[in-house]
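Example record for the data management plan.
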Amino acid sequence: MDISQYLPFMNKWVNPLQNAYFFRLKEKSPRISFGLSIFIAITGILFLLIFPYLFLALPSALYDTVVHATELKDWIDAVIQLVLIGLGGAFSWSIYKLKFSLPTGLDVTKEKFPHLYKLIEELQDDFGKPRIDRIIIRDKYEIRVVKTPRSKMPFLNTRTLIIGLPVLQTMPPLYFRALLARRIGQLSTQHTPVTTRLYFLNDIWAQFKTSSRQSKNGFTKMLSYFFQLYSPLYQTLLMPLLQEEELEADSYGMDLVNDRDMVECLVYEEVVTQFLKNKFWPKIYHMAKRSKIPEFMPYSQMTKVIKAGITDDEISETIQAALKIDINNPAPIPALTKRLNRSEERRVGKECRSRWSPYH
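Corresponding structural encoding:
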């Protein structure tokens, strides 16, 4: 059961279109915004830790209370402690029984995809050999990293690099390399500040929400009520930080390709994304409704359709529409305007550092 629909105040807080306060807070008081982000993240972690603590720490206190009990008040305290131990144990067991599913897709191995595997290994070398546990290809247009909890706590995780088949089919090799670098750079030990950890927590809390909702256990259901509120609230309150991490990821791509190519990559990615979303897939669905036998398999013709369908006019219209989006549009992926502005700032910064370098 989704309880957020019964809480009117949640609509105000978790609807990104109605809430730009946190962007203004980050601009005016970045330290306060960062401190708020840390506090919100710690809240979720402490919620998970409080139950094992009650179960493990209170028995000794209960023993002392019973041994030294002389009044009715002491026995009432003992009963309260016993109830807390029971609740701590029950909820700890519920957390332990949570099941997290790894992302599914076609496994990328050295034998099956030697060129792709070699490219990923080269990028790992460029970014200090960050650990990647699994690499899969799936049907969505995306390149991202998912951390799946292994210990029932958001500390130890299985890292899965997800590569969308449409990205492989539509992106030129140089752009594809840049998009891969964005994600591998996020895992690098050279680029893992606190903000990056907070960024990945957003997806981890969503997994806690999904896993707890699927359970039929009563105590786990009560856990799910917390995460149904906490997970969307976490994303909304930390939206400026999530966008900042996406902008920072763009810089990892710029570490491997020149500034102009990275800008073209961002623009081309926006054009392809909108073309697939607004034209390609709607047409495929329409064709599927008309006939049970498809005229062609979508992925087999995607590259051909993209090359023929993305005309100069299509590119111009898509870019103009993207540039009209509010620069502080509260979505996990920043507006194209913000990404291009940040890329330009980095380009100018590089030129200045090069010009003022004593070795220039």
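Summary line stored alongside the record: The chain has 14 helices and four strands.
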